[in-house]
Design brief:
2 domains; Rossmann fold; Arc Repressor Mutant, subunit A; four-stranded antiparallel sheet; alpha/beta; five-stranded parallel sheet
């Protein structure tokens, strides 16, 4: 689970970061709203923890921009303002939860955990089985039946990449987002490695691998699944 923590007070940011990492989360932290948007556009995150008062771009604006293209990632607003109007404004812009400072650290960790479990449960319910073009994929067992009637077993990495592309169908998924979501933060396969996965998907699931309908490489940007 990867969390983006955006908090401009150094001591608070560091304290939250350390405790999230002790819970087993991978944390990317920044104190700048503009930098946060750069991270969001270039990487995959399972939850966003946003302070409201930030340099350059505030937490409400970040929430609003994220929700234009991503309605699923959980967002928790963290702020010193304990005003009903601000809480309502954050929720209206698409935040899932709202915590005011000073806060109880244990409560924050519980809310983070609850939102992540709920998000993963919903994804699992939606994405356990998926069908496209007479192909059927079971993401729990990694088994698939192709349009030809062939039974195949995907590798774990193949299943993870396919699930990511399907969840983001009709969107271009950048190479960095794939690296973060599938290979992890510290492993960086070459672009050719990801291309080979896409070629394998075309071989499995496309009627004409040279003229793909589902799996597309967007030169210099990333990859896209259309259905």
């Amino acid at each position: 689970m990867r969390i983006l923590l955006v908090e401009d007070e150094d001591n608070i940011r560091e304290g939250i970061r350390i405790n999230l990492e002790l819970e087993g989360y991978e944390v990317v932290a920044t104190g700048n709203g503009k930098k946060a948007l750069e991270f969001i556009h270039g990487q995959h995150f399972d939850l966003l923890l946003l302070d409201v008062m930030l340099p350059d771009v505030d937490g409400f604006t970040i929430t609003e921009q994220v929700r234009l293209s991503n309605t699923e990632v959980p967002i928790i607003i963290l702020t010193a303002k304990d005003i009903a109007h601000d809480r309502i404004a954050g929720l209206k812009k698409g935040a899932d939860d709202y915590i005011t400072k000073p806060f109880n650290l244990e409560e924050l960790l519980l809310r983070v955990g609850n939102l992540l479990r709920r998000s993963q449960r919903v994804k699992g319910e939606v994405m356990e089985l998926y069908e496209f073009g007479n192909n059927k994929v079971n993401f729990n067992t990694f088994e698939a039946i192709t349009f030809r009637g062939d039974n195949i077993t995907l590798t774990k990495k193949e299943a993870m990449l396919l699930k990511l592309l399907v969840e983001r169908k009709n969107e271009v998924v950048s190479r960095n987002q794939i690296l973060q979501a599938v290979w992890g933060y510290d492993v960086f396969p070459s672009t050719r490695t990801i291309d080979n996965f896409i070629l394998a998907f075309r071989k499995y699931f496309e009627q004409d691998a040279k003229d793909p309908v589902f799996f597309h490489s967007i030169r210099g940007v990333g990859y896209k699944f259309t259905a």
